[in-house]
Write a structure and sequence with these properties.
This protein is an alpha/beta fold and about 750 residues long. It is built from 26 helices and 22 strands. It catalyses: GTP + H2O = GDP + phosphate + H(+).
């Protein structure tokens, strides 16, 4: 067998390790050759012949330990060779391979060696040395032993004296470690093992990017390129499919390779001794020697500093969009239970439970929509980033996008303290903790975010209830994700339940004891914090009762510089209003607008307060900030009278110019129209003389002049309105600048 590293290697490339320990490493053990066997069978001679490329006349009792550098081996891994002798180290040490060397005349001792307990767990190669001393082959005797013991990878006849199969021997030794046959193939049944079939089936499903059940030529070329870095020539691709057609009737369909054909090809590779091809594919898709996905593949390193969050970036959303389109076979922008199950066939378990349908948006049939699909991935990324990395690994993100790992799909946001300092944020996901006593309507608020009214909420089963809800909200034209979390209704909140971007305090207007809980929680955890809070009066469609608290909810909000209570109900015919969700998201995006900021910064920096408060103009009720003062001034009667007088004065000053302009336009239009009127007049006179028609026909000649006067009036009016708008805007900006 020809191989790139089988050419003679100079002795200068060989180095001895500093200690008798194993050098190098490979998944997980290093490829170490440990020649062992009976005495005087030529173990040391084989090593010396490999190093010096000639048969040694004087053979030492034991050869020194040798390391083959990685750059001279085809697999680019170091190989450590240790000569074993009866006086040396024990066989059961943690070496990656045992090489039992026998003389061709002593093949009967193979039974003793192959049944040794010390070698039963390691790959084994049987070597028949001194083949130059016999004129026949012992392979017919050795083959039954190979079939009996699956640990034996291969057997080789060689000669250290004639340098026969010396390089091949060490190549097979390295290959037995890197590409073992045992995990892939069962020689008794002559088929691949279930674990190998399962792994290759997942690889096929990932590579089938259009989900049509076959690998097209483009998909096969992509598969070939990502696994072997070389595309297939068109003729080679056709030859592969012809081989499958000849041996399997349903291996090729619609000129594409089916799953059965894909598995047949790998079985053929293994049976022909090309199992390194199958191992290359498996390791490219993240599998280890036990055909399990490695932790390094599923959980790549990702550093997340404190007070930072994780979000999916644009490339990740594009990938998830392609996954959704791949499995949305009926193109209804929703995944049915069968389509969702088909999507998760590449997972070892079902990752989503029935509660997901009550966490994200669904259609009328309860199927997860496209928006809900992306929202659930956004939720997983925000709450459990390691699980998100694992899920993306199962989907083959790093392979299909040709990225180093799934970590490239995530964005780590900057510290929240920096956002507060800069008065702006680059985040797209905001968390809102919903606080309230039991039965106040918190779950209704969560489901209203998903567009579900009270009638649809009553259809949710208790065991499928979700404590999270996430959906997109538009704030000033920007699409943001609002994540609602229904926290516990205990007397005290834990630290994790107070970490959020905004707090929604919900009380029942029909329960007199409901508001007291919200007021107490606010004073205990959020009154002196930097977290903005919004009070929501739930079930506003019911009769509002007096709350058993010292002050009313409106006075409480005014006292603590909070926006007034927001009335909310989900007992509607259509989807509930989303006004409170827009306000919550706005408060999370611009936290300096909350009450603590007014209290601490209004006296010192009112201009900053105004710029922040202007973004929440619909929620202001304090009548103390700069924004409220300006708004009250602009809406005052004094300013309205001044505006009217100013408009009158400007209009009087501009009227001569407008009249002159209008007269010029009128003269041009009249000159052309008069010619037309004279022409029509001549025709009308002739008709009148002949037919004696009604004299009212003459009045039509005067309608054109009336229309011209009307157009002149509207011209002057539009010009005056434009001037007034410009002057009003300039005056408004000047007033704001002074304030």
């Amino acid at each position: 067998m020809s191989h790139p590293w089988l050419c003679p290697v100079p002795c200068s490339a060989w180095t001895a390790p500093p200690s008798p320990t194993v050098a190098g490493s490979i998944c997980p053990l290093p490829p170490t050759d440990l020649p062992s066997g009976l005495s005087r069978v030529g173990k040391t001679s084989l090593i010396m012949s490999l190093v010096s490329e000639e048969f040694p006349e004087e053979v030492p009792p034991r050869a020194e330990e040798i390391t083959i550098p990685a750059d001279v081996t085809p697999e680019r891994v170091p190989t450590h060779i240790v000569d074993y002798s009866g006086n040396g180290c024990a066989i059961h040490m943690a070496y990656a391979i045992l090489w039992h060397c026998l003389s061709c005349k002593q093949y009967k001792t193979c039974y003793i060696l192959a049944s040794s307990n010390d070698i039963s767990l390691l790959p084994l190669i049987l070597v028949g040395n001194k083949s130059d001393l016999v004129e026949y082959s012992s392979m017919e005797t050795i083959l039954p032993i190979m079939n009996q013991y699956t640990e034996i990878e291969t057997c080789v006849e060689c000669s250290a004296k004639n340098l026969k199969n010396i390089s091949e021997l060490f190549y097979y030794a390295q290959k037995a470690v890197l590409h073992p046959t045992g995990p892939l193939y069962c020689p008794e049944e002559k088929e691949m093992k279930p674990a190998c079939i399962k792994a290759l089936t997942r690889i096929f499903r990932i590579s089938d990017q259009d989900n049509d059940g076959t690998l097209s030529d483009a998909e096969l070329n992509f598969f070939q390129r990502i696994c072997f870095n070389t595309p297939l020539a068109p003729q080679a691709l056709e030859d592969v499919k012809n081989v499958v057609r000849k041996n399997l009737s349903d291996g090729v369909a619609d000129n594409g390779l089916t799953l059965k054909g894909f598995l047949f090809l790998h079985t053929l590779f293994i049976q022909r001794g090309r199992h390194e091809t199958t191992w290359t594919v498996l390791r490219r898709f993240g599998y280890d020697d036990d055909l399990e996905l490695t932790p390094e593949y599923l959980f790549p390193p990702l550093k997340i500093p404190p007070d930072c969050t994780t979000e999916l970036n644009h490339h990740a959303y594009l990938f998830l969009q392609s996954i959704f389109d791949k499995h949305d076979l009926d193109r209804d922008c929703a995944l049915s239970p069968e389509e969702l199950k088909d999507l998760f066939k590449v997972f070892p378990y079902m990752p989503w439970g029935p509660d997901v349908n009550n966490t994200v948006c669904t259609n009328e049939r309860g199927w997860i929509t496209y928006q809900g699909f992306l929202s659930q991935w956004t939720l997983t990324t925000y709450l459990d980033v390691q699980r998100c990395l694992e899920y993306l690994g199962y989907l083959g993100y790093s392979i299909l996008t040709e990225q180093e790992s799934q970590a490239s799909a995530l964005t780590v946001t900057r510290d929240k303290k920096i956002d507060l300092q800069k008065k702006q944020t680059q985040r797209n996901v905001f968390r809102c903790n919903v606080v309230g006593m039991k039965g106040c309507g918190k779950n209704g608020v969560l489901q209203a975010l998903l567009g579900r009214n009270l009638m649809r909420q009553r259809q949710i089963r208790a065991e499928h209830k979700s404590y999270y809800a996430i959906n997109t909200v538009y704030v000033y034209g920007q699409e943001k994700y609002l994540l609602l979390h229904d926290v516990s209704d205990s007397e005290f909140l834990c630290d994790d339940e107070t970490i959020c971007d905004v707090v929604c305090l919900v009380y029942d207007v029909n329960n007199p004891k409901s508001f007291e809980y919200c007021a107490r929680i606010f004073k205990q955890h959020f009154m002196d914090s930097r977290t903005p809070c919004l009070m929501v009066a739930a079930k506003s469609d019911l009769h509002e009762v007096r709350q058993e608290y010292s002050i009313s909810p409106a006075d409480f909000c005014k006292k603590h510089k909070m926006p007034p209570p927001q009335a909310f109900t989900c007992n509607t015919l259509e989807a509930p209003s989303k006004d409170i969700f827009v306000k919550l998201t706005t408060m999370a995006m611009y936290p300096p607008t909350c009450a603590w900021f007014y209290k601490q910064n209004f006296n010192s920096c009112p201009s900053v307060c105004f710029r922040s408060h202007a973004r929440l103009r619909c929620m202001c009720a304090c009548n103390r900030c700069t924004f409220c003062i300006c708004q009250n001034f602009l809406n005052s009667d004094l300013l309205q009278s001044v505006k009217n007088k100013l408009f009158t004065a400007v209009l009087n000053r501009l009227r001569p110019h407008v009249d002159e302009l209008g007269a010029m336009l009128l003269a041009d239009e009249e000159s052309s129209i008069i010619h037309q009127v004279h022409a029509v007049s001549f025709v009308e006179d002739s008709i009148f003389m002949e037919s004696s028609l009604d004299p009212h026909l003459f009045e039509d000649r005067h309608m054109t002049q009336a229309d011209l006067k009307s157009s002149s009036f509207w011209l002057r009016a539009s010009f005056g309105a434009t001037v007034f708008a410009v002057l009003g805007f300039a005056m408004y900006k000047a007033l704001l600048k002074q304030r």
